[in-house]
């Protein structure tokens, strides 16, 4: 069964497929925060650098497999397959929003 994502979340995962940091950063609010692997990236430029570094280190694909609403946030479980240690793995993408942009994204196991 396909997972129906909110527009900006769908755009985020579509941009992630292209490994284009400039496309991904367009999904985020100016002062957005990303937390990934215990590191925090604040603001679009830091988020762009985070994605640029990730896309040069590893090749991967993400398939959203579930979506839930938890404490006012959208939680998408994604199945990642790639050339990174521990592949494949399911990760939780926890999204909070400001207007029609991502205000916060936390990626956790």
Automatic annotation (TrEMBL):
User: Can you give the residue ranges of the SnoaL-like domain?
Assistant: 9-103
Against SUPFAM superfamilies, the record matches this protein to: NTF2-like (SSF54427)
Q: Which organism is it from?
A: Qipengyuania gaetbuli
State the taxonomy lineage. Bacteria, Pseudomonadati, Pseudomonadota, Alphaproteobacteria, Sphingomonadales
What is the name of the protein in this document? DUF4440 domain-containing protein
Q: Which Pfam families match?
A: SnoaL_2 (PF12680)
Lineage: superkingdom:
Bacteria
Q: Per its UniProt record, what InterPro entries does this chain match? A: NTF2-like_dom_sf, SnoaL-like
